Amino acid sequence: MPLLQVVHFTWKGIQKPDTMRKRKEYIRLLVVGILSAAFVVILFLLSENEVHRNNAFVRRYPQYPVLNKYDLPIKFDSYYMAGYDNGKLYLGNTTAPLHLLEVDIKTRDTAHIRIELDVTDLPFRSVNIKFHPPYFFVMDGAIPFIFRGRVGDWKANLWMKDKAYFDKAIPIDTNRLYINTVSAQTQMRTLGHLVKLDDFKIVLNTGILEKQIDGLFDVDGIMAVSPNHRTLGYIYFYRNQFLLMDPDLQLIKRQNTIDTVQKAQIKLAETNTKGETEMKAPPLVVNRMASIYNDLLLINSNRLGKYELESMLKEASIIDVYNWKKGSYEFSFYIYNIDNKSIKEFSVHDQYLMALIDDELSIYELTEKYFGKYPSYQYSQKTNTKNPNME
User: Fold this and answer.
1) What CATH number does the domain containing 96 carry?
2) Residue span of the structural domain in which 249 resides
3) Higher pLDDT pick, 106 / 45
4) Is the pTM for the entire model greater than 0.85?
């Protein structure tokens, strides 16, 4: 019995330190795990804060540069801005490609329009409608095809087929479109013209977009055209810069925004078996959407400057205003959310800023003190294709 007690005591003496060591090891692992998780959370919060904040700039918010006139329910959130003519805004619909909603901005009257095409057996993929009065254009750059018809008649004839692929296109006169495409020679994104003469001609300015990483994703951006179609703009999504060009795509100037992100912060995945490259992670978006008005360029950016409350991003979208002729930042203002939904597209015509917010059309009046008097535009009816510096 005593022997058993000694053996039992000895066995306990041997095991006790191991148990304590294991317990300490478990505690140490638990502490390391908690600290690691906390570190990851902190890094995530810091990265999220970096996405929305940049203390290097300060915005100016004057009193009432725009005044909300009314918000008009349009029933569906699938509308986009197709064009504007003589006080009427025309909205296309992504789910009903040949449907237009006409909105009289002053009276708020609406009318539904059905476009008729002379060819209906094309394999539509991503139809987009754009206006250059007196014409409207029905386009799909992935097929590719373009129909053209007269505003008010609403019948369009096949105007171009299988001549040029493009991602985006905006008509800048009756026979010429400003296009965003990928060059077959360089395999990089570029800007150009699609011009109708006796036949169609593609004119690219392959040197105007400045490559930083791959020349495809890093130079992606927003196309903008002034209401009179005499000034073309291109605003990079992922860096603090925009370009202004004349109708021949000759550079007028490059200008930086008030943000300080000079290089696109994107990560690309390896090319897949189909030769396609995709984003590896969500990119840092500096500029989201834009519109040109006279000498002013209006840009929506949800990057917060110094002293700005992050809670404002839940209430409104920020519009920064630049005078591109003076090369200056002028001021900023808010477009307020509707039912917690933020702006998805806006344009500026006459004395109005028109914004699509979910299934509402929000109309703001521009204050003359900050935007000047609105001009009466005469649209170009001619085509000018002289541009010796373009391919």
Assistant:
1) 2.120.10.30
2) 61-371
3) 106
4) no
